[in-house]
Amino acid sequence: MMIQIALRAPNGQSRIQVEDESTLADLVSLIKSKTELERFTLKYGYPLKNLDVTSSQSSSIKDLKLRGETIVVAPLDTTPPPPPPPSEPPKPAFVPKGIEPDETSLEWPARGGYMVLRVMPDDNSCMFTAVGGALLLPNPSATLRAQIAEYILTHPDQYTPAILGSPPAKYCSHLLESDTWGGAIELSILSDIYDIEISSIDVKSLRVDRFGEGKDTRIIILYSGIHYDRIAFALDLSYPVDCDVTKWETGDGEVLERARELAGQMQRMHYYTDTTDFVIKCEVCQWIGKGMKEAGVHQRETGHGEFGEMRIQ
After folding, report:
1. Contact by Cβ (8 Å): 251, 183
2. Residues contacting 295, CB < 8 A, separation 6+
């Protein structure tokens, strides 16, 4: 019988199929071929634990219970890659304006890595990108918008005009537009669709809002008042995002506490918008309102999705 295993390696993420009677040695050989790495360690599970590739090479994949697992491939080679040509300098990591890259991570020696903030583009799809990336979805914004719209329209008793703030068909029509924000309603629906808890940490208050509490698996996002980012675990800060761990067992409370510590680090740098005194202006019709709730209502009523902050002197 064939079993599927997901790989996360520096050259990207992929899926491999192996016979359940194959040995660990067979798996290691296949991973070498897939990743083009000769020396590496393998980690899997939640929390990550080492897969011993030296003393257990004759063990069968079935006995190791690797069906459906995600294996993180961490290279052991220490030789740095050659520098890029002078005319093409490397681009810095995308981090919040005014914040140094090392301030968006928190070392976690006990787990052998770092909790990291993965900053999402400021394009009105940040929530969908943050969640979709944690779920390893291609084209996350369009995919999740379509799934949420279908869910709303097939659950009319649950998602009424009173809940949505507008007729369901109109709400979904706006939701499918790429410049429409997502929020609590969408997070709750995604939790049901993917049977996963979505823990959203508010930077200003460090409050954790759990969507889908009681599920077995959790992803973590960061909410800074008008923007969502993703929190992940990285074995090394030099590894690409494809090597991130973004799902954890909900019983692993230490992960959530570490994520809150990272959020506290961002709070001290004032990485949030205080929506209490947040005056917003619609760039389309010049409407002016206060707070994200009023902006969301205006967006649903008009379809306008271009807003700017007005600072009151």
Report:
1. no
2. 280, 282, 289, 307
pLDDT for residue 273 is more than 60 = yes
DSSP 101: G
**Predicted confidence (pLDDT) at residue 261 exceeds the cutoff of 80:** yes
Catalytic residue among 77, 123, 195, 236: 123
Residue 155 is a catalytic residue:
no
Q: Which residues pair with 45 in a beta bridge?
A: none
pLDDT confidence of residue 87? 38
Show the beta-strand stretches assigned E in the chain: 2-9, 12-19, 40-44, 49-51, 70-75, 105-108, 113-118, 197-202, 208-211, 217-223, 228-234, 248-249, 279-282, 288-290, 307-310
pLDDT band of residue 90 (cuts 50, 70, 90) is very low
Q: Of 243, 244, 298, 304, which one is the catalytic site residue? A: 304
Here the tokens at position 276 are 């209490």
Which position among 126, 172, 243, 282 bears the catalytic label? Answer: 126
